[in-house]
Amino acid sequence: MSTTAIPHHLRVDVETLWAYHDMHHELRPVDVCVGLGSHDLGVATYAAELYHRGLFPQIVFTGANAPTTIERFPRGEAIHYREHALELGVPDEAISVETAATNTSQNLTNTRAVLAEAGITPCSVLLVSRPYQQRRAYATCRKVWPEVQVLCGSRPLLLDEYVHGIGDVARVINMLVGDTQRITEYAKRGFAIEQEVPDEVDAANRRLIEAGFTSRLI
């Protein structure tokens, strides 16, 4: 398999999952941006871009490390995100970091605690994540932080642009499959609210699992 080209026989299924996870929220000004840690530095890039557009006055980058990020971000996801945002001109006083979270629920509950310690109780938040984490982030936030109005956003990239930027098509497909499974499984476990999974999304995910993309399944 090419490292960046989506195999033709998998394309429709990969595109189906990619489209499903995009919440298509129309962005508007919010009280706080939460940059969710992952292997994707584009989260920090987009958060910085939106800060400069005036959509929020404060960013919290949250995330420790996962097995998929330890080599890329050895000092922790949130720390590397912060450094990147500073390089992009976001002032230091506009950035907070949360460095202990290892899952999305912790990202959000720990961020709420960081903000409370700073005397900030937001009414609205924008969750910036990698593109295929949007739906899971939304469902998790509605469960663990129900009092805030939540929007989700990611860098507006086409699927092939995103894969090329990550440089590893297998990683992207595996992550898509894992995040799709988590929509259902995390709701069952009480970690997130339920989200509808259309039949075509479930079928696409099953075919990709049968094709061997199982490394991110729980």
UniProtKB/TrEMBL annotation:
Residues 42-144 form the DUF218 domain. GO terms for cellular component: plasma membrane. It comes from Actinokineospora cianjurensis. This is DUF218 domain-containing protein.
